[in-house]
Protein: Glucan endo-1,3-beta-glucosidase 3-like
Amino acid sequence: MAVINILILLLVASAVSVSAVSTDEDAFIGVNIGTDLSDIPSPTQVVALLKAQNLRHVRLYDADRAMLLALANTGIQVTVSVPNDQLLGIGQSNATAANWVARNVVAHVPATNITAIAVGSEVLTFLPNAGPVIVSALKFIHSALVAANLDNQIKVSTPHSSSIILDSFPPSQAFFNRSWDPVMVPLLKFLQSTGSYLMLNVYPYYDYMQSNGVIPLDYALFRPLPPNKEAVDANTLLHYTNVFDAVVDAAYFAMADLNFTNIPIVVMESGWPSKGDSSEPDATLENANTYNSNLIKHVLNNTGTPKHPGIAVSTYIYELYNEDTRPGSVSEKNWGLFDANGVPVYILHLTGAGTVLANDTTNQTFCVAKEGADRKMLQAALDWACGPGKVDCSVLLQGQPCYEPDNVIAHSTYAFNAYYQQMGKSSGTCDFKGVATITTTDPSHGSCIYPGSLGRNGTITNGTSLAPSSNSTTSGCSSQYFYGGGYVTSSVIIGFVLVAAVFL
Structure:
């Protein structure tokens, strides 16, 4: 990753540079979905988490068929990827590229909303022998999209490490590694001619780590800086308050150095690890939370960059899940926002930033049974939640933490709230035909900690937990959760479920 040299921050200069990048769209936040997990969630569980967190943009590192089928009819915008190990074959054969597009794109649209193809990943940095074929691969993939009449809806590009940008501070002096000009010039011409964008990976964490103390931590984390601490580009007089903006603007200036001033940038990877070993003391929960919370707010506020204020810089966070089997250092395994069960690694501070990644609990709400609600209606709704609603109601069994008090009001309150939380607290999921209501009072009691609660240790408890899979040992069979120790036959349960089907 490019290291920003801020030793010359206080230089003074003239002339502000203006270029022609523009966009009519608001910026968005997406997520990368890695798969190096020992207990990887099923595609349906992944999609459930995406929906619960109102994530409408995802990037896959391949074009997994099961994942693409699970994303069908969700409207979620999907970037699929050509893995690096397939790049040489596609870059050397138009027919191979056409077959890849037919199998991994045409077969899934329009049901699955594929909007971009990332061809390879950081090829110039990590697979330089494939550099000479990257433009051919882009063109072959694009030709296949043209043949399928999909070129207007699906963009084609390739993600770059920011380390291909040299002399990156001040941004106005930045330029791409000259040795790659034979690749970058035709690549940028391709992006310009097809209306695509430069895909860039931006990691202030690594910039900070590699700066040997030159870059202040606050500058990397988007924390507010006093004016006299801001980085100043001596050539443009533009002030930089964070590393992220400086790297993005360095990429804009590097493109301008090659006479390309109208190609937008989408950041395909950015984030901060929540855990590291002794050599990475700043890989902490607090710093990861601070960076990603501030990044999300910065992007969604359409702040843009000093060079292009108000111009969207849409960004994909790296990453959705902690990847515990990923090789390398401790930090490599801890970039995720969630663990494999869909539980947040930390609670983002996103008040005022919209509903994306709404695992913020600064405004906690819970779903509870209405006071005075009809007991039979509550029982029917409880049956539905623990059955078709796929709530894990095992904690309501005798001897479990939420068995007491053993009555339909308490048990239905737990089930209603669990369903409400797993659905991301979205509108209409706390009603149950009028017997449920939303409250800001945490209904947890004793050792019974309700989903969405901060619990005793300040860590959210199953705030976005997923429904148990069909082969789960906790099947959610409603007959186990009748209050008073009573059990009824399955035919009665079916009758209750049929009544409850109109609840949601």
Observations:
- The longest strand covers residues 77-82.
- The chain is about 30% helix and 10% strand.
